[in-house]
Each structure stands twice: as C-alpha cells, then as structure tokens.
From TrEMBL:
Gene Ontology molecular function: any one: L-valine transmembrane transporter activity
Residues spanning the membrane: 12-29, 41-64, 80-100, 120-138, 150-169, 189-210, 231-251, 280-300, 312-333, 339-359, 371-390, 410-431
Protein name per the record: Branched-chain amino acid transport system carrier protein
Domain of life per record: Bacteria
InterPro entries hit by this protein: Brnchd-chn_aa_trnsp_Livcs (IPR004685)
Function: Component of the transport system for branched-chain amino acids.
Native organism taxonomy: Bacteria, Pseudomonadati, Pseudomonadota, Gammaproteobacteria
Keywords: Amino-acid transport, Cell membrane, Membrane, Transmembrane, Transmembrane helix, Transport
KW Transmembrane (keyword) present: yes
Length: 440
C-alpha cells in the first residue's frame, strides 16, 4: 500500500481535477459576462469568482474532509431529505443539464458553422460524442491516465494558444454595461457563477478525485483528504487563469459580435476573426476536448452514485446516463440554458448551506437542529427565486419580494442566516437549562 503520490502523479491529479471542472459553462459564460458587464466587468468578475471558483473548491475540500462520503455532508438534514438533494444534484450535473450542455456547446462552436446548424448534424455529433464518453467512462480506474496524463494537457495547451491570441489582440475602450450588470454587477456575477454548476459538480468530481487517489493504492483518510484538497486548489487556480482570459475576450469582442446571444457566439466570432476558418476548426477541437472530459467525469460520477443506490451495476448505468444525455442534448443549447436557470437557482442555496456547514458542524452539540432548519429555509427561498426566474411570479409571496437582495435572486441569504442564529441560540439556551437542572 502506497503512502504518498509522487510529483508526476500529483500534477496528473491536479490536471485531471482542472479538466473535469472546465466544461461547457466555464467556457461560454465568462465571455458573455465580459461583454455585458463592460466598465463594471471587474465587479462582476469578483462575484463570478466567488460562486464559480470559491464555492467549487470549498465543495471539493468539504468532500475530502468527509473522506469522500457525500452522505456525511448531507447527514444534518436526515437520510430522506439528504438523498433527495443528492439525487437532484446528480441529475442536474448529469443527464438533465450539464452533461447534455457539454455536447451542445462543442457542437455549436466547432461543428455548426460547417453544417448550417442542421438538426441531423447535431444528432449525429451528439451520438458519437456520448459514445466516446461512455467508452472511456466504462473504465474509471484508468481516468488518471486517460484524463490526467493525456486529455487534460491537450486541453491546457489549446487554452494557452487561445489565451495568447486574447492578450495580443488590440485593446478596445470600455463600453457601458448592459442588462443586469448596470445596477448590480456583483450579484449578476454571482448568479452567473451558479450557471457553471461547478459547486454541485465539485461534490461529484471530488468523489472522482478520491477514487483516483484510492486507485493508486492510497487508503489513509488523512492522505486522501490532503491530496484531494491540493487537487481542488490546483483546479481553482487553473479556472481563475482561464476565466480572466475569457472575460478579456468578451471585452475585446464588442465590435466582433455586437448581437451575440451567448458566449458561444462571442467565442466563435473572436476565433474566426483571429485565426480564420482554420481557427474555427481549432476551436471546435479545443472545445470538444474540454467538454468531453467533463462529460466523462459526470457520467462516471452519476453511474457510481446510482449503482450504490439501485440494483443496477456501474457499467449498465454508464450506458444509460450516456444515452439519456444524448437524447436531451438533441434539444439544443438555447433550450437547455433556458430550462436550467430556474432549476439551478432553486437547488443551489441548500447545497451552499450544507457545504459551508460541513466545516463547523462538528463543533455543534446537535448539528441537525441547527443546520436542518437553515437548509430547509434556503430550499424554500430557492424555490421562490426559481419560480420568479421562470416568470411564475404569482406563486412568490409579496413579503418575500421585500427581502434584501431579492432582485439579485439572493434573498435566501438573510432568512437562512437568521435561522442559523436563532437555532443556535435556542440550542444554547436548552443546554444551559439542562445544566441547571442537573446541578439541582
């Protein structure tokens, strides 16, 4: 049994974690924010980094501290509610949204320009894409070699080439912000960080990293925690570097894609202008590699979790989730983004509470009585925010609309914090009363 990873294995582990995180949303959202935020871009960047980098790294570390056991993170809300949350997490980052989005983004950027956005071309591409993802996912023990030592370095080299083109492109004057970045760029960045789904993915990818470490013969919990945390930090540093270049790309592409509807349009316009037709082909390869690595990680994570929850084995579930992702990807990128926004706004708050609570729950005498109520309040508030984002506004109470940060879709923060404080005070008073009775 090994007790340490060598430098090469540690670098491969960090590259793998970075490659797993850097998928479709990570590539298409920053350029769009850069263009929309304009002169407020760095305020928006700060908000985006908080939820797009900070929370995912914290999620990986939290999972590492639990020894790779997701059940320990959700234990304060009970088994039933916890399992429902985990299932929702895996379905969101798996076959319902994130995994299909990886295929549609890579198709839109690399294939669609040559096929006139043909539906048939999308179907064929998605089928081949998920066939490859499923094939690699069938052998999870080889992920460190296939992803960490081959696909991840290829992705990084491609991103470096793109970054050089971005930073050498001429600067343009900062323009006025648009849309939701005029009055509240920081909160706009936070909400867009949600859309990467990386906080949810951090819980799943953390498990992939833990399993990769175990596959190298390391089974001591403290060593698994240490190496998983290091891999998460390395991935976070890589994400920051990529995001900064992509934000600048958006700033410099105002005149190249003035009518862009999403980050994919901006990337395509920039690369086409900078590299020509060959550049578009290069972008397609780069994005396809970036996205399929994420799809592999998501497929492995979903199959691994549901194989422990259902009577079905790992490999049949790999094929099932890859097939389901293919079917949903046929809806196209715009529809996937449209339907994912309200769902993610609804499910993010309770997961944020559980992840952060994982760092202090051991200090609570009864963590269930403190964390469970706050998580419940965060979920209810998240549902209200999701309904509002879906334009089902009649179901959102007027009193809720008066809470601070409601317009920024973060009204859940105030009632959640108040619930935590109230629950903690009640517990402390109960403990003091118990001590007094015992002393009598």
């Amino acid at each position: 049994m090994k007790t340490n990873l060598n430098i090469r294995e540690m670098l491969s582990l960090g590259f793998m974690a970075f490659a797993l995180f850097l998928g479709a949303g990570n590539i298409i959202f920053p350029p769009f924010i850069g263009m929309q935020a304009g002169s407020h871009v760095w305020t928006a960047v700060a908000g985006f980094m908080l939820t797009g980098v900070g929370l995912p790294v914290i999620a990986v570390i939290a999972l590492a501290r639990s020894g790779g056991d997701l059940d320990e993170i959700i234990s304060p809300v009970g088994k039933l509610a916890g399992n429902i949350l985990i299932i929702a997490c895996y379905l969101c980052i798996g076959p319902l949204f994130a995994s299909p989005r990886t295929a549609t983004v890579s198709y839109e950027l690399g294939i669609a320009p040559f096929t006139a956005h043909s539906d048939i071309a999308l179907y064929i591409y998605s089928f081949l894409y998920f066939a490859v993802a499923a094939l690699i996912s069938l052998y999870p023990g080889r992920l460190l070699e296939s992803v960490g030592q081959f696909l991840a370095p290829l992705k990084i080299i491609s991103l470096i080439v793109l970054a050089i083109a971005i930073f050498t492109a001429p600067d343009v004057p900062l323009h006025l912000p648009k849309s939701g970045f005029v009055d509240s760029p920081f909160s706009g960045g936070i909400v867009n960080g949600y859309l990467t789904m990386d906080t949810l993915a951090g819980l799943a990818f953390g498990l992939v990293v833990v399993n990769a470490i175990r596959s190298r013969g390391i089974n001591k919990r403290e060593m698994i925690t240490r190496y998983t945390a290091r891999a998460g930090i390395m991935a976070g540093a890589g994400l920051i570097a990529v995001y900064l270049s992509l934000f600048i790309l958006g700033l410099k592409s105002v005149e190249l894609a003035p009518d862009a509807k999403n980050g994919a349009d901006i990337l395509q316009a920039f690369v086409s202008y900078t590299f020509g037709t060959k550049g578009v082909a290069f972008l397609g390869v780069m994005i396809s590699v970036a996205c399929i690595v994420t799809a592999i990680g998501l497929t492995c994570s979903c199959a691994s979790y549901f194989s422990s929850l259902t009577p079905f084995g790992y490999r049949p579930l790999v094929l099932f989730f890859a097939g389901l992702s293919f079917v949903i990807s046929c809806a196209g990128l715009d529809k996937l983004i449209h339907f994912s926004i309200p769902v993610l706004i609804a499910v993010y708050p309770p997961f944020i509470v559980l992840i952060i609570a994982g760092f202090f729950k051991e200090k609570c005498l009864n963590p269930v009585r403190i964390i469970a109520p706050a998580t419940g309040i965060a979920f209810v508030c998240g549902v209200f925010d999701g309904l509002w984002a879906s334009n089902i506004k009649i179901l959102v109470p007027l009193s809720y609309r008066e809470l601070p940060l409601f317009e920024q879709q973060m009204a859940w923060i105030t009632p959640t914090i108040l619930t935590l404080i109230f629950s903690f005070v009640i517990q402390q008073l109960t403990v003091k009363k118990g001590v007094r009775r015992d002393s009598l």
